[in-house]
Recover the amino acids of this structure.
């Protein structure tokens, strides 16, 4: 399937949302930084070490379910908080409370800034649909549906496995492959005949762990080698590079 940059055996495409389809990864990174910096400043005072919106984001939270991201980053700083409950208010210093606080910031930023889809990704998904490939969105975000609608691309996908669905079905998030496997199952396609499209290292690991037929790394931030080492079969800066024979792989 050279026109899509895929092996001939591929019958389905499983797309991550933030950073692959939409320009929301930077919004999430900014929200994590705002939330964690406020928490760390209140805890440690003016001399606190800030959250790095590039390194800390990529290593500890990108691609993970919200609560997992909170736990992962706090563990990197040697901080342990009570788990709390999913309905904890944002001012409560628990894992769930910090997650709620971060989500409120994200929603505010999306309302202020809107959501923009990557034009190259939209063209690629249209091409995949025209080629008869099945299509799903697989995201850890509980706001996935709203983001798809805001970006005007919700109708391009047959299946959505997001943070809401994962919680309902008790599916562990990335780097576990379960959400991608669930998407393939709903599409009626074996994992070996599905391609995964991801920009996060956790997503790469999920693609490799699930034994999917092809794993595409989307490098928006200059981490091509890390994406390869975590499981990418090919790395591109934009999905449009995969269209046609002229696409050049990074």
């Amino acid at each position: 399937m050279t026109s899509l940059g895929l092996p001939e055996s591929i019958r389905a495409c499983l797309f991550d949302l933030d950073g692959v389809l939409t320009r929301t990864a930077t919004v999430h990174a900014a929200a994590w930084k705002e939330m964690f910096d406020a928490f760390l400043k209140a805890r440690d005072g003016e001399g606190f070490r800030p959250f790095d919106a590039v390194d800390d984001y990529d290593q500890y939270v990108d691609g993970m379910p919200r609560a997992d991201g909170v736990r992962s980053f706090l563990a990197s700083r040697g901080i342990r908080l009570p788990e709390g409950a999913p309905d904890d208010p944002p001012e409560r210093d628990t894992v769930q409370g910090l997650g709620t606080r971060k989500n409120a910031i994200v929603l505010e930023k999306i309302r202020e800034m809107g959501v923009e889809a990557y034009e190259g990704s939209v063209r690629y998904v249209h091409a995949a649909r025209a080629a008869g490939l099945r299509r799903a969105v697989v995201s850890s975000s509980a706001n996935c549906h709203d983001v798809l609608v805001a970006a005007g691309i919700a109708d391009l996908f047959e299946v959505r496995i997001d943070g809401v669905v994962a919680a309902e079905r008790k599916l562990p998030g990335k780097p576990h492959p379960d959400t991608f496997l669930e998407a393939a199952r709903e599409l009626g396609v074996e994992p070996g005949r599905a391609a995964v499209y991801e920009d996060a290292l956790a997503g790469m690991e999920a693609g490799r762990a699930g034994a999917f037929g092809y794993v595409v790394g989307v490098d928006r931030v200059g981490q091509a080698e890390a994406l390869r080492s975590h499981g990418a079969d090919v790395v591109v800066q934009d999905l449009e590079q995969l269209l046609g024979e002229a696409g050049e792989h990074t």
